[in-house]
Amino acid sequence: MNIVHLEDDGPLREILAAALKAVEPGCDLRQFIKSDEAVRYSESHQGEIDLFILDIRVPGSMDGLQVAHKLREMQCKGAIVLTSAFRVPDQSILKSLDCEWFPKPWHIAETTSKLLTIARKKKLKM
After folding, report:
1. pTM for the whole thing?
2. What domains can you pick out in the chain, each with its CATH number?
């Protein structure tokens, strides 16, 4: 399982990394603080990434929602999960991007399980 996580909150990055590694020890988790770094990595690894977890409010030239649009423009087939404590995207946007919404704060055990299930289901469709 190859996962890209875009999140500017350090403790949240650490908690999610620990939870994912506990549940899916072999996962390749790449975490980014800035949107531009996540997009650059995704451009060169797009066929390998199973799951993108994108916070909406992040530093960089794009917010997480714009990153999701960019990933779909690049035809990345991995599952996309958008998350934020501040802004809920319109349902039509989520549908057009074929992505999921997870509001913050998370219950980490439940969230980790849901994230991996979403990625596995998407992978089966590919």
Report:
1. 0.93
2. 2-125 (3.40.50.2300)
